[in-house]
Amino acid sequence: MTKRTQRPYVICHMVPSIDGRIVTSPWKLKSGFHAEYERTAKTFGADAWMIGRISMEPYAGGARAASPRRKRPTSPRASFIAGGDATAFAIALDPSGKLRWKSSTIDGEHVIAILTERVSDEHLDDLRAKGVSYLFGGRDTIDLETVLVNLRSVFGIEKLLLEGGGKINGSFLAANLIDELSVLVAPVADASVGTPSLFDAPGAERASRHLKLISVKRRPGDLVWLRYAVKR
């Protein structure tokens, strides 16, 4: 069995502007825009969704400020699995353990934090107390493919929505871990400089991927829904 069959099927589902920007707050789009995004997302029947630390902060309840360098962690670096009866999951890539969780669920979906082994013992204690599951993705950096394999083997996740930001999407693209791209193209020309784009990660330009068009659909609010398979 290959690692491809051992990991979840990954769909990157996003709403970029016509020029590929993904910071939607300044666009002042019509009401129902976000609801349409959620409606299209649900059609995939995914078991989980994943975003990065900054995007997850509003859902988690905030983040810890930078703290002085601590002594080497002493607690064992073993995964913690809670929410044993969960069937839907919200996954946060949080390498340094900065997210301050208020709950172990988001809208009924069990939270899984993806960490590096350098996180503090205090943070792990807090996650266990809150009932937040966590997996380690590596000692100092996160190995995305290993994380995906573990998400499937430990939690049974077979289909995952990757929902940004740009650096995380770009890292998945560079690692050739995206199987399908789903974009709701917003009727906006952003033209901003220096704001995140759909795929925005160092080194990603050396790992461009060719796509095969699956479908094109017009959606309410002048949105266009494009789906592509990533060629292998």
Characterise the protein shown here.
The protein is an alpha/beta fold and 232 residues long. The protein has two domains: 1-46 and 158-232, Dihydrofolate Reductase, subunit A (3-Layer(aba) Sandwich); 48-61 and 76-157, Dihydrofolate Reductase, subunit A (3-Layer(aba) Sandwich), CATH 3.40.430. Helix content is 23%, strand content 24%. The chain contains six helices and ten strands; from the N terminus they run αβαβαβββαβαβαβββ. Strands 1, 2, 3, 4, 5, 6, 7, 8, 9 and 10 form a ten-stranded mixed sheet that branches. The longest helix has 12 residues, at 144-155. The chain is globular, with a radius of gyration of 18 Å.
Q: What would a concise description of this structure say?
A:
With 232 residues, the protein is of the alpha/beta class.
Q: Can you write the helix and strand succession as a string? A: HEHEHEEEHEHEHEEE
Specify the CATH class of the largest domain. Alpha Beta
Instruction: Specify the structural class.
Output: alpha/beta
Q: How much β-strand is present in the residues?
A: 15-25%
The CATH superfamily of the largest domain turns out to be: Dihydrofolate Reductase, subunit A
What is the number of helical segments per DSSP (H or I, 4+ residues)?
6
Largest sheet: 10 strands, mixed
Number of spatially distinct domains: 2
- Fill in the CATH topology of the largest domain: Dihydrofolate Reductase, subunit A
Overall geometry: globular
